[in-house]
User: What shape does this take?
Amino acid sequence: MKQGPVAIIECVQEIPCDPCVDSCRQGAITIGEDITQLPQLIEDKCTGCGTCVPGCPGQAIFVVDLNYSKQKALLMIPYEFYPLPKADSKVKALDREGKVVGGAKVLKVMNSKRNDRTPVVSLLVPKELAMKIRHIRF
Amino acid sequence: MRIKDHPILGPRSKKRKVFIEVDGQRVEAEEHEPIAAALTAAGIFVFHRTKKKSSPRGLFCAIGRCSDCFMIVDGIPNTRTCVTPVREGMRVETQHGLGQWKVSS
Amino acid sequence: MREIEFGVIGGGPAGLSAAIEAAKCGVKVAVFDENERPGGQLFKQIHKFFGSREHGAGIRGIDVGTQMLEDAEKHGVEVRLNTAVWGIFDGPKLGISSDQRVSRVSAKKILLATGANENALAFPGWTLPGVMGGGAAQTMINIHRVLPGKRILTVGSGNVGLIVSYQLLQAGAEVVGLVEALPYISGYGVHASKLRKCGVPILTSHTVKEAIGKERVERAVIVKVDENFNPRPRTEKRLTVDTICLAVGLTPMAELAWLAGCEFAYVPELGGHVPVHDDDMQTTLEGVYVAGDLTGIEEAHTAIEEGKVAGIAVAEALGYLTSEKAHELKQKAWGHLDALRKGPFGQKRAEGKVKIKIKERRGDK
Assistant: This one.
């Protein structure tokens, strides 16, 4: 978390599932033979590129960069709703319970064919809220 | 209400408009869609009424397996509107009670 | 009377999968489906599936469906739509009806892959328009692209209730709340998280008490329940909703299997009365196979794998595959089924499946 952008895998239940493994081009996510096991992140291999974010069917993977700037962190979230937010716009930031905890700025919205219709929104958020914010509203 | 654009399904594809008659009123529908979908989109939710208390009944299973969506369609009672596609000029009526078959002699 | 080699009843993932496997081996297959479109529930599943990459996880159900239809066509599978199978007779022979006409078909082997029905929950006002199955709401939004209502209450926190609620949000509805009678969420945590971060309240130990409205649902009353599911007095809350989605479980659509005379077992963890079957997916009736939700409520990937086993077993029984080759192919599918039934969610299903397994065939019935 101290080096730069890194994937945060919030997968906590043992469900037979492993698409995250292939979604990482650096081989930084492993599960093992028994796909019920929880995915493990090899932090040294993770570049924080965010390709894994749309790959998780449970939308449980995020990317956080706590060192983006002095006060702000970078946060990437999956976002499967219309309308999509616009780059450079200001949005409300919601925590895991859908409560507004602050504001965020949209840096960009990534939605290539590889996302298979799970766009990824890149946000600038207050550093202390980077591990709380998981959704937006505007 | 029809869903115009959708994050996974994409925008609506252009479908030909079809007009059906519901209890005498002209209702716009889309080619091939089930009668129940056209009615729901048009804000019509009561499809028939029960025999004893005239209680309203509408969509329930949406796949042709219960009987809540029954209406009289082109004179035929107990038609499952959730799996019957619309046709231009189709006559749809709210069914009251069990439905009467008009048997020709 | 028309004679066919392999008749498949139900063109969902289990049926199509079996048809494709059998057709690959050279079997002449006909799939009968009473709907206008094949695919069963697949074309409503707009979300990405879980499971193993090797077997198509991470792909949306709609795309799995499209691929299966392409494969079926590629291998020459005949699909008869708008064709209902209303009876099974000795032979086996099928009674079918299509285009207002009734006829019979004689088959060497048949597969019942009829899926499941949604359960209903009765409470005062449940007959009002606006009260519908969770699957019904899903059909309206994902197939017909029509919102059944604008303000939704969902009853049930299994995967169907959780997923359909999320899809209703995507379709533009507001999900006012989700109630679950158990003291915990019974579906996947990640599905629940997707709802919670959107602000949807999930109330465990709660259920719906009443639906109020004149011609349509206008309000719902929810109530807290105790550990015996009895309502706690004075805990009622009124919600302004126009739609109540009941996602309270599925029951195998087992009428044809029952009519045919298959032996059944009652297994609550699989959804109720299910036809028993052996490792080849064959029932107690020679030549009658079963696959998919009919044999126990699970998911699309288990339906696909069970269908594969049945298709391979039928090809073997008809002489299109050697026992060695058939065993090799079945082994792969069985292995995958075991993997899908692991973990705290799969455990109960795995135990249920053991209860309905025929270990030794007792000869023709």
